[in-house]
Amino acid sequence: MDQAPISKRQAVAMLWHQGVLTWKLDKVQMELYESYTNSSSKTIVWSCSRRLGKSYCLSVLAIEMCLKKPNAIVKFIAPTQKHVKSIIRPLLKEIIKDCPKEIRPNFRTNDNIYRFLNGSEIQLAGTDAGHAESLRGGSADLCVIDEAGFCDDLEYIVQSILIPTTTTTRGKIILSSTPPKSTDHQFVDYMEDAEKKGNFVKKTIYDGLGSRITMDMIQEIITELGGDDSSAFRREYLCELIMSEDDAVVPEFTDEMQSKCIKEWSVVPYKDLYVAGDIGFKDLTVFLFGYYDFKNAKLIIEDELIMSGKKMTTSLMAELIREKEKNLWTNPLTKEQQAPYLRVCDNNLIVINDLWQLHKISFQPTQKDDADAALNSLRIMLKDERIIIHPRCTTLINHLKYAKWEKARKKYRRSKDYGHYDAVDALKYMVRCVQYSKNPYPATFGFGSSDNWFYNKALQKSTTPALTVLADLFKPKKSLRN
Which letter does DSSP use for residue 382 in this model? Predict the structure, then answer.
């Protein structure tokens, strides 16, 4: 006998009992949800436009965790207690409106906790006036920080309050926010670190088109904020970090510029190869591998080598440099390896001497005079789209994007990867050492109007009858041509 179809109310009740609430999410929220469920990373960072419902998605994740796992603990943090009361609690209340009574959680006002009948809890707190200290201790299966870019003492909260609670549970931490007003905020460091590790999600207002956002709504926002190039629209809805020229080391490296210069580049037949490094022991050691495309007047950064910590020795350094050069610059047909025209690094003479004496790898110390002029040359080349960076150079890309000056503008601020944005200096050294006027092409090589690089126009008239007969042997048949 066929069973009678269940009603919508019965279906909703069944999903609640199973702890499945994804049906409450729209397309963008579902993508955020999946970035959490599919990630193996401890910390996930969302940089999201306003009006995309990121707080709603966080609330759904928190409730699902509590329904699926008895005695689960979710620590939910917002910038202020007022934010918790006026935004988070109403969202949680709205979500559980159709929750069956037998599993519906109760809110305990005194301790700011939603408690479920299976023993699970959502513990709420703001970061103002030390309220987040109430979440210290115990264990947590999920930690959520909403509008993390506006929370006080973010690093302390993550490192000292939340991470210890997830040690035994292997719980994850989600930091979600629109970009902060100041690039000094610690959320920017978490964005940078997450982007480097591949656990960063960015959603602009345009990602919401077709779900809860229309073009008319976007146009209305643009008009109200003074144009699509206004700082408010770019920060709040395009999720751009707005850095002033006084703060940014490379202000030209905007999102628009990145779309132009971060890409793969076609191999050229003749080129001079360069290696440039910034050596550090406390900080990062960064080597960049590239070449100068003389025909197109562009510096191509093909790859990077990043080292750090006590394990970094000149022996390991030499081994990894050789391996990188072999992989990048060995002809796949002839198996011949082209040697770099020049290797340069900062003036660490002990390392330079060891690399040569012990490993026969030659580096020249770079010039260090007029560092501002060298940095300006880098910035001009980026602005003129004369530097191309392969997408795999993630550290270089992140360092160019996030590098900031200390107040005195004497050195860069420390980055979360324990460097001082060392890849920027490595690129600066390469820009400085390239011999831009040196033509690597043979004298007999002709580009020709067709740009057929493998057809030598200079030898075109030297054909003899014997060569003609030989060439005819390799002509394809007419049938094959077709």
Answer: H
